Amino acid sequence: MTSKTLRRLIEEKPFVTCPGVFDLVSAKFADRTTADALYMTGYGVVASYLGLPDAGLATYSQMLDRVQIIAQTVHKPLIADGDTGYGGLLNVHHTVRGYEKAGAAAIQLEDQQNPKKCGHTPNRHVISVKEMVNKLAVANDARSSKDFLIIARTDARTQLGLDEAIRRGEAYAKAGADIIFIESPESEAEMRKIGMALDVPLVSNQLHGGRTPILSQDKLREIGYRMAIYPTAGLLATAYVLSNIYSALAEDKPVQEPLYDFNEFSSLIGFQEVWAFEKKYASLEAD
Q1: Distance (Å, whole) CA 233 – CA 223
Q2: At the N or C end, where does the chain have fewer CB atoms within 10 A?
Q3: What does the pLDDT look like over 164-209, one tens digit per residue?
Q4: What's this model's pTM, rounded to 2 decimal places?
């Protein structure tokens, strides 16, 4: 899927919905829905790939590997979490080029200090506005196409207050960001204030279990948002089901959770193509 498709969705659709994906199975399921785009969640990828918290522990190379393999698997545009750009200005340049080449339609860059943390956890600190503006200037120059979108996220709300977060959103838009992401507003009133203050495409992080209210898409659109990401819904649902099923198996109890059909799952991950290949080349294997 070309990145041009995501820009067109933002420009033409009243609202763009992006479920969070964290591995290849979740990406395949989300790709089959009517969602507009997919969001590769750093929180979920670090948890599923490394078994670690999203606290600046994953490297650029590890995340790029996930971007590439997910982007090559799905048909919908993929928005990829790029954390802080994994270092200074040269790192940001390298990261933007790498994510774009890997097939992402957009990269999310944030203004946290290193090591960064999940945006709905405590003890986050932000860099100066000037530092982030410089990063965005480099990111803007690094991309080979303007259709590869830059999402600028600020985590200033928790540490410095909503007004400072809005001020940063304005500065980041002027620095070349295509979409502004103000992390973790704590009420609908705060979200409405953001929507009224910023005349640029806004994304809401609808993180289940986080600080921000979960609102309907109609409500989000009404108060000024053009896009929503849902990073944790699929991950937490999967964790809940796995916890119950594995406990039941360990205790020799019947599995109570509904199970996805085995044959349908085999089809989802490509066994039909394997069988078709084996049938086509059966005579060669016989030789």
Answers
A1: 22
A2: C
A3: 999 999 999 999 999 999 999 999 999 999 999 999 999 999 999 8
A4: 0.94
